[in-house]
Amino acid sequence: MNFVSVGDLSRIFTLRGSNAALRSDIERLSQEVTTGIRADIPKHLGGDLVQLAKIEDGLSQASAYRQVASEAASTASAMQTALGTLQDLADVAGGSMLSDTSLAVSSSLKSVATATKGQLHVAVAALNTNIGGRFVFSGTKVNLPPLASGDNVLAQAKGAISGATDAESAVQMLRTWFNAPPGAGGFADNAYRGAVSPAAEFGVDSSTSVKFDQTANDSGVRDILFGLTLGALVADGAFTDNHDARASMMRAGGAALIAGNASIAQSRSDLGMTEQIVERSKTRLESMMTNLKIERTCLIEADSYEAGSRLIEAEAQLEALFALTARLSNLSLAKYL
Hints:
Strand content: under 5%
Helix content: over 70%
Number of domains: 1
CATH architecture: Up-down Bundle
Shape: rod-shaped
Domain Flagellin C-terminal: 262-337
Number of helices: 12
Radius of gyration: 38 Å
Order of helices and strands: HHHHHEEHHHEEHHHH
Structural class: mainly alpha
Pfam family, one: Flagellin_C
Number of strands: 4
Largest sheet: 2 strands, antiparallel
Protein name: Flagellin C-terminal domain-containing protein
Distance between the termini: 24 Å
């Protein structure tokens, strides 16, 4: 009978090769057991990665659309909050400015006017709100706050009525300044710093886009600011010695606030419709991403039971190899003899 002997050096290389192969198998199988995903996806799919690439591309697009939809939702929410603030101010200030009781005596009239001046600053701050550095009421000029400061608006308003001799002419001159079209040197040119055109559209999915037409130069917004500015002018001393003129300006401001409130309510309703479109798109995108992730998992998932069984088998083989290596390392000619 012929025997084939294996030299010590060959045995060492054989054991090292077996050790490395078993360690590699254990690492791969441990990864598959832990993640539930095949470690070598191209091999598992037989080199055909077209379907997986389509799924990954679909997930990438859906994720991008979802990000845009989230930005659109945040913009709409910020606009709703700001316009809600304007409505609250109009409710409070409008009622006070139209109240005969509040306007009956100079002290209470001045108190209401002073409060209105503070509300003007609150309204300007609300309209200058921004989300992630984007000013939502500036139209396409999202990098600029839409309005000058409340003090600046008030200073310009004082200049606009500087030639008024009575309350009626002051109200009319200020209204003309607020409603002047771009290029006429009024509110749109000196106090409003945003763009005339609305902001760019948000593509919230492959077939749906939304845009926000609301700016700080809308007629309803101007009505609110006009009403509050009238009260602020009274607070700053307009027609100081004429109580009836001051009361007339306050009533005109209150009427403007009521009218502006109705316009703002319509703007908020339009925003609500846009929010619904955005939310429906977000729901579709979430459903699409869920389905694509399930399809991807079906392509590349590993059988956890099978991987676990093979992992146990590989670990047992490695332990046996360690035992064999240890036993062979103790052999010597002296012990054999």
